[in-house]
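Sanity check

After download, print the first record. It should look like this:
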Amino acid sequence: MFKSRSAWFSSSVSQECRTFWIQQGGTIAGWRGADYLFSEDAACADTLRIFESKCFLRDKVTVFHSLFLTTCEGRQSFKSVCIGHYVLPPASVQDEVRHVVGRLIWESEDESSEAECSQDEFTEGDKSRSKCVIQW
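Expected structure tokens:
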């Protein structure tokens, strides 16, 4: 599922998520060179360092909630899961996001409410970003 893709994992992400990534053909990399960045906690020290980095401030990297991987595992596919719904904003922004969109997807108690979108809906708007965002 993740062959030829690399990821960085925050210390807040469970070992099970990392193991799933590797079992599905993904590799582990440093955050500056990874295709994906995963965290479960925007306030975790390693995630905060990314949010404070020039790369993040210049919109060169995006951090995703690791629930994306759990959802991919459940669906046995990543193409049917809209990764854009799993963007993990800095903690200081999360209340504003909740005000606009309601609960963040990882806060949802009803898994059936997870939004879906096609691969094209994600990639068209984000292809120009750095390699820290998924490249198809």
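If your output differs, re-run the checksum step. Summary of this record's structure: The beta strands are 6-9, 27-28, 36-39, 64-65.
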